[in-house]
């Protein structure tokens, strides 16, 4: 993958309804979270109100923090650790609610009961003014409404062709994501998203402070029987050997730890000592998580699934 992935601007109602993901193609394939409205997210940019973060884990040399970012439609889970030092420092320093802008990687964790938990691994967090908050919130609403309308038009057969999309200056990523959303979320009700966008727009134009999230009532996702994914390409003998060696390393760290988990930071450090770069180790962790062999039930803590 060349270049930096674009950061999608969206609201919590859409992000927390995302339960589908996919992996890109190529040697350094990126993972993507697909929303019901076609946001094919590797990175996201979101705004809202965030207060004091919660410290996760018990090891002082491997800190991890989780915060709750609230916008008018719901709540994002935002995490940061040692691999995101500046974001972690900002997250840790929040003692009282502040209006912030967050950019980070979209991530899905699937629990043993198949429950999906979307979260954002922060790359950058900064405090913003109320004027900037309103502008960014309005921009997220506008983009969300446009993508919702695109998904609706594709559903009813009136959506644009490739040529029509180019004539309308419709981003190719939007059309690709919308088509994928129609296939992966065929029965989801779109009405709650439009209602959520209305609440957010009212907040953007009608108040100087981010409103509290609405009463519990998450957008309901009704899944159709999934289409079997295409078979992944066969791994080489070298890749299989690399995965086996890394899993042995995870087992060693898990057996030696007090909580039964391998610390992600320690795992990458051990892998580096064996000649693997940080980027290679991160890619290997993502690959093993996506294949279901490795899981991260606690942010920054790994174990065999």
Describe it for me?
Helix content is 38%, strand content 25%. With 305 residues, the protein is of the alpha+beta class. The strands form three sheets. A five-stranded mixed β-barrel has the order 5-7-8-10-9.
Q: Walk across the major sheet and give the strand order.
A: 5-7-8-10-9
The rounded distance between the terminal residues' Cα atoms is 28 Å
Shape: globular
Overall SS class: alpha+beta
Radius of gyration: 20 Å
- At the fourth CATH level, what is the homologous superfamily of the largest domain? Nucleic acid-binding proteins
Work out the number of β strands. Answer: 13
For the sheet with most strands, the description reads: 5 strands, mixed, barrel
CATH T-level fold name of the largest domain? OB fold (Dihydrolipoamide Acetyltransferase, E2P)
H/I helix tally: 9
Q: Which spans have pLDDT < 50 for at least 5 consecutive residues? A: 213-231
Estimate the mean pLDDT confidence.
Answer: 82
CATH top level label of the largest domain: Mainly Beta
Task: Give the % helix.
Answer: 25-40%
Total individual domains: 2
Strand content: 15-25%
Order of helices and strands: EHEEEEEEEHEEHHHHHEHHEE
Question: What is the level-2 CATH architecture name of the largest domain?
Answer: Beta Barrel
